[in-house]
Amino acid sequence: MSRRLALFDLDNTLLEGDSDHAWGEFLISRNLVDANAHRAENDSYYRQYQEGKLDIHGYVKFTMAPILQLSSAKRKALHEVFMRETVAPMVLDKALALVKQHRDAGDCCLIITATNAFITSPIAAIFGVDQLIATELEIKDDCLTGNIAGTPCYQAGKVAKLEQWLLAQRQPQEQLSLANSIFYTDSVNDLQLLKQVKVPVAVDPDDQLRSTALEKRWDIISLRG
């Protein structure tokens, strides 16, 4: 029997909040950006995401702009503060338990997120998943360029990146596939992937996803409270 594939969105699913948006607020708290201007643009991009209309290339450029000149060592040090001050309080106990439940069952656990890998790699490590699939960032001479490398892990791109990863994993002893998969997410942005997995689960869903989940009789759960 093939190993089950357990897929988890990150922001507002395993976390009580959005790590990408929270990064913008963190930069404000560290006085690395102009507070009013940065918050206004950060909030505007977040509304785009909630409406399913995010300009992800523009958002990544905006998100990374304040740290483009930092070396990998300085980026890592800054992110460690972000993890302590901002991310740690966002991690949901029930989310940790859910991922552990799937790991203990022997499932192959993946976090798949539109948020870039710089922000999300250390967060994924907290959950002990087998793999993170995220929006990758272009790096030149140890510095970020502000551009996305390859396909953004957003909407149809999330499906494409997962399919590419699955093709690369194909081995005789472990045939991972969407035919034996479960996917947990809060967002209507993930509708394309939800329609392809065996078991779609809406987690504290936004209004649009809740409506779709009720119509299609998908499971709806909460990891909060």
Strand order of the largest sheet: 4-3-2-1-5-6-7
Gross CATH architecture:
3-Layer(aba) Sandwich
- What is the alpha-carbon Rg in Å? 17 Å
Shape: globular
CATH topology: Rossmann fold
- Bin the strand percentage: 15-25%
Account of the 3D structure:
The structure is a single chain. It contains nine helices and seven strands. The protein is of the alpha/beta class and 225 residues long. The chain has a single domain, classed as HAD superfamily/HAD-like (Rossmann fold, 3-Layer(aba) Sandwich). Strands 4-3-2-1-5-6-7 form a seven-stranded mixed β-sheet. Helix 1 packs across helix 4. The termini are far apart.
What is the element layout, followed by pairings?
Layout: E1 5-8, H1 19-29, H2 35-50, H3 56-64, H4 72-87, H5 93-104, E2 108-116, H6 117-127, E3 131-140, E4 143-149, H7 156-169, E5 181-185, H8 191-194, E6 199-203, H9 207-216, E7 219-221
Helix pairs in contact: 1-2, 1-4
